[in-house]
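Sanity check record (used in CI):
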Amino acid sequence: MELESFFHVAIKVEDPEPAAEFYREHLDAEVLERRRAAESDDQFAVDAVVLGIADKRVYLFDQAPYEAAGLVEEQPPGFLHFGYVVEDGIEDTFARLANDGVEIVMEPAVYGDKRIAFFVAPGDIRIELIEYLEDDSSE
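Expected output for VOC domain-containing protein:
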């Protein structure tokens, strides 16, 4: 597996809006996106604010998407996971990880315009791999 880029950090907070305001005020964060669980029928629906800070994204969630989907027990506030972009091969990567006995939190699944999956690294650190799907709408 070759990582293309480090993409984001995800943090669980009680309420994403006041947390986002803190980052805007003190770290000059830009709000890139807001998500509302009530506006989605997706199994991963959560309230979230996506921030741009320097050259990275910070996701502020009221609960982890994999928590909302019932894939893990309730998570405490604080750090949730790192997200890395891979060019392709997420399915093969996860097959190798599973064969090596690595704990898989979520098998690869389509989420919007990407395929995502989660595994656990030493120290109980969750890592998300993100593979952007090809846009076939121009054909």
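The chain has one domain: 3-132. If this sentence no longer matches the regenerated tokens, the check is flagged for review.
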